[in-house]
């Protein structure tokens, strides 16, 4: 189990527990923080998050990179930008700070 420290779009912070091995998006959806309308296919961008520590964000998948490029006209894409549907939660995520990106 990983504890995520999440800053919502309104600036409030919330702690979210995420099960190891699950998609990070699932925990964020359960907490009402992201939509994930494509169900984890990296094709909608509604689960876009920013990692405070860009090195903790990890490598983007090819599909994820294309989706984030498509969002550039609507929201800021940062080095720590990721789609939470493409992240498998591990112990390495415990205690990380993430921010929910603005809605597209």
Overview features:
104 residues, alpha+beta, Ubiquitin-like (UB roll), five-stranded mixed beta sheet, globular
* Whole-number mean pLDDT: 96
Shape: globular
Biggest pleated sheet: 5 strands, mixed
Structural class: alpha+beta
**What order do the SSEs take from the amino end to the carboxyl end, as H and E?**
EEHEHEE
Q: What's the number of helices?
A: 2
Fraction in beta strands: 15-25%
The strand order across the widest sheet is 2-1-5-3-4
Would you identify the CATH H-level superfamily?
Beta-grasp domain
CATH topological fold name: Ubiquitin-like (UB roll)
Q: How many domain units?
A: 1
| First and last CA, distance | 30 Å
Task: Tell how many strands the DSSP assignment holds.
Answer: 5
CATH architecture: Roll
Report the CATH C-level class: Alpha Beta
What proportion of the residues is helical, as a percent range?
10-25%
């Amino acid at each position: 189990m990983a504890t995520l420290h999440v800053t919502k779009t309104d600036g409030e912070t919330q702690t979210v527990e995420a099960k190891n091995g699950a998609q990070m998006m699932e925990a964020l959806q359960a907490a009402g923080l992201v939509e994930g309308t494509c169900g984890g296919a990296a094709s909608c961008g509604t689960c876009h998050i920013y990692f405070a520590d860009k090195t903790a964000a990890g490598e983007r998948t090819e599909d994820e990179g294309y989706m984030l490029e498509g969002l550039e006209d609507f929201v800021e894409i940062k080095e720590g930008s990721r789609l939470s549907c493409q992240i498998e939660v591990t112990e390495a995520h415990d205690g990380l700070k993430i921010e929910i990106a603005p809605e597209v």
